[in-house]
Structure formats: C-alpha cells, structure tokens
Amino acid sequence: MTEAPMIDDTLSEALVGAVRDVARAEILPRFRRLSGEEIDTKSGPDDLVTVADRAAEEALGERVARLLPEALFLGEEAISTDPSLLDGLDEADLAVIVDPVDGTWNFARGLALFAVMLAVVARGETVFGLIYDPVLDDWMLARPGQGAWACRPDAAPRRLRSAPEKPEAEETGYLPTGLFTMPARERLLPLYLTHRRVQNLRCSAHEYRLMIDGHADWMVTHSSNPWDHLAGRLCLTEAGGAIAQVGAVPWRVGDTSRVLLAARSEARLGLLEEQLSEVFDQ
C-alpha cells in the first residue's frame, strides 16, 4: 500500500489550474456551438453526452496523470461505457474521479448551468473536492477539516456556510421527480406542498453550490454516482451540511445504486430521512 499524498496548497492549485485550462480549451469553445452530430445519447433520450464531455475527460486524464501519476483516473464517460471500472474505487490507494461536464443536458441546450466536478479519493475517503463553473471562472473546493471555500481569480477565498435553520414552509429543495418510478413520484408529492420551492436544476454541481453557499436547504437524488456527488459531498459537509446514502452505512464511494439525501445540517438530514422513510422502504 502506497502512502496517499497530502493535497497541499500547491497540489490543490495545480488541480484547479488543470481544470480551468481544460475548460477553456475543450468546453467553452463548444458552448452554444454544437452541431447535432456532436450530441449523442447514452441510457435514454435525456441522458446526453457531447464531444465536449469526451474531449474534456481525455484532457483531464492527461493532466491528472502528470500531477498524480500513481492515481487511478475515472471519468463519467469511460464509466458509462464500462461500469466495471468503478469496481476498484473503494479500495484504491489513490483515485481521481471527474465529471467533465456536469449538467450536459443544459450545456447541450445552450443553458449556462453546467460545471466540472473533480474529487480525489484515498482508500475510500474523499480528500479533495472541486466544483468549477467554466462560465464565470469561479469554483468551490474543500479538503477534510479545512472548510469549504468559494474562490475566484480576482478575490480572496471566502469561507462557506450552509443555510441556517428555518421553518419547513420557507425551505427550498432539489428533487428530480422524473427520475424516480411512478409509485415513488406519487409518494414524493407532499414535498411540493409543504415547502416554499421544490425544483430541479438538472445539474448536481449547481445544486450543491447553492446548498453549500446557504441558498438551499435539502436535496434528494435517485442515485449516488460518485462523479456527481463526491466533490459536492465533501464541500457540503465541510460547510456544515450532511449527506447520506439511503440504506448504506458506511458510505461506499463506488456505489451508484443508492438514493441520496443531503441537507443543510445533520438535524435537517435526520428530519428528511424520517419524512422519506416510507417512500424508499417500499
């Protein structure tokens, strides 16, 4: 077993720099310029992949190999072709997992609500998480025990805090209702009646960003894909929030099959688990 490297400031800055460079080279030049032939589907008509996703993933793999040559590199698009690539993630001494364009549907339709997500995992523990917005060139990052931070090139980093407690009727939550089975959708409907706003941004990265920065209160997702959630999970928990895979204790980083619940605090997560216990027990 090799010793996992500490993600110090120098390595953190290098990883951020790699993501920024790749976004400028492979993602932004294609935004609102994709032809129909450059957009494809994966599991269904709304599960899109573009030439930007694939080119960015390849470029990120090359940059990560220079910075962390010993790391297992996993990208969403490679995993979608060969899911067995995830088999070694939980036990890997060191791994880097990326979503090259989180929010591909938005990206492909010209909506500026997409991001790059990158997480570094050491023996099942996420030791670095990055959520990068290519459009505004800003990012959130976290390392265990060091807090979550909002960063931009022209300003000092800002410490992030999840939302304060508030009445349920004033809460905003995220719920991709259409991704659940019809029986589950029916049981989830009360959430729409008891909260101020329930919506779906079609982009995990930006849902996490709003929760981490105190502008949303909870999230329910239909799966726990690590490329969608490991970076956001670390940033959220470092900002004071909480997250859990339904029925999975302890958390398994390579598990994609679990419904995931996240909230602004441990207390709110407990209430959310209680509210939804019957939904996912059936």
From TrEMBL:
Keyword Membrane in annotation: no
GO annotation terms (biological process): inositol metabolic process; signal transduction
InterPro entries linked to this entry: Inositol_monophosphatase-like
SUPFAM superfamilies attached to this UniProt entry: Carbohydrate phosphatase
GO molecular function, one term: metal ion binding
Keywords: Magnesium, Metal-binding
Cofactor: Mg(2+)
Leader sequence residues: none
Transmembrane segments: none
Sites where the protein binds Mg(2+): E76, D99, D102, D228
Entry's family note: Belongs to the inositol monophosphatase superfamily.
Protein name: Inositol monophosphatase
Organism placement in taxonomy: Bacteria, Pseudomonadati, Pseudomonadota, Alphaproteobacteria, Rhodobacterales
